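Example record

One chain of 232 residues, shown exactly as stored in the release files.
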Amino acid sequence: MLNWAARYFPILRVLKRQLDEFDSILEVGSGPVGIGKFCSASFVGCDVSFPWKPRAPMSPVMAAATELPFDDRSFDAVIVSDVLEHVQPDRRMAVVLEAARVTRKVAIFGFPSGVQAFECDRKLAETYGRIKKNTPVWLQEHMMHPFPTELLFEGLKRDWVVTAFGNESLRFHYWVMRKEMNRVWAFCFKILLVTVPRTIESILRRADQEPYYRKIVVIQRTSKSDLVAAEL
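Predicted structure tokens for this chain:
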């Protein structure tokens, strides 16, 4: 739960700055909950499958991130949170381009980034083995490919405003994940998020220190990209 908050709270701050009250949102790779865990606004959640019935405020759609079933510029914002690391490296750019295609204003990508983050998760996987717990499927998938970096977005800078910032220190991420292996700690984190969310968000912001576990990349349309689209 606290791990979810760590990766979604920065995204929510970006959305608050970029969107109006009734703007539309798509989350790619949302699972059955997605950003709806921390946001009451309705949104479309897209994934290849849902392990259990999605719940409001999500409207679920089953589809691959590389072939989104939406027209160009269908949504004001697109979120792709902790998805790219699960995609084969040669398919990651296709995911980025699809998200860019269907957004009108902004697309936000969050992902574990670089060698140090990969080693942090390798250490976490070893910890599961030592305590004789089954390694979660998501963590098994993390170990299959090198993590993406900001370099993935270099080719967009001609037509998009691309910015990036760090999220979660490596040490904090490892600490949270270790604690959430314990049901008591996981329950405590859940209660704190319900009762004192602003305090928890303040603590999480202080945990955004180098070396970072995750990078969040924000791409925004430029007037040049709008002109090109109009000519097409």
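Notes: The first strand starts at residue 25 and ends at 28.
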